[in-house]
Fold:
Amino acid sequence: MIADRDAFVGPRRERWESLQRLADRDRLDADEWSRLARGYRSVCADLAKARSLDLPDDVQGYLDDLAGRAHNRLYAVRPVGFGRSLWTETVSGFPRALRAEWRFFGLASALFYVPFLVGFVGALLDTSFAASVLPEGSLQQLESMYSTEDLHRGSAGADASMAGFYVFNNVGIAFRTFAMGVLAGLGSLFFLVYNGLVIGTSAGYLGSVGMGFNLLEFVSGHSAWELTGVCVAGAAGLRLGWAVVVTDGRTLAASLSRAAPALYRLVLGVTLMLCVAAAIEGFWSASPVPRPVKYGFGLVQWVIVIGWFVYGGRRMGPAGGGTAG
Structure:
């Protein structure tokens, strides 16, 4: 009987202790809730097996108590409201997820910014390069949009209308960049390269016709949020594609389920970033504020975004389980 007890308890002890720690935690993130649910199902199966083997009462009692605690933790009403939980996941969970998936973010950034630089330099040095990337009508529209006369709207109604348009447009681009990652990541790769090339070419062309500073004045305030948000969306798409291709022996559904917590946080972060970008673009970028002030504001936005990515969510306080990387 002792041998049966040891053989049963030994391989499972670490898993039970991990479940006990989760059940005792004051606050859990999305991945920990998922681990708690899996642990609860496993310990219920262990309890049933312990009873069928007629193991000693101390083992059965321990498992019965552990299953009860996990059940109560899992199905009790959570004290943190949905809105606050969603905000915490976005503000703290997102940068932690991004740091964990830094390889995909780095690759996505390279896929966006290398074509951006190619397009920018090519169009800046030779306007025929821009014509080979963008149709003539688009080039004429760019000149009209960023002429000095059209740069400032000066209407609150127009600002609100444009902010709504920017939300719709930016989120649409990001969603396509992310969702097309399901095609083994190739869709995300295409949209990153395409958007990088088009945006870089547009900037280079405007610089070549003497409107570069007009463009910089307009985009300086929101570019940190918008361009980085597109790269994060691409990183999420590449991560999705990786889960489709590299399943590590799991079923496709299990592989996607394993990637889901990270993808959820990345998408939350992208949504917030692009909404912030749209608000700045709609209410600030075309305002008649002096150009140096806009440049300074833009630099502050880059500091905020980089600081958020590097330091966000590192210290959750006692209820969050201490320091998170």
In short: The two ends are 44 Å apart (CA to CA).
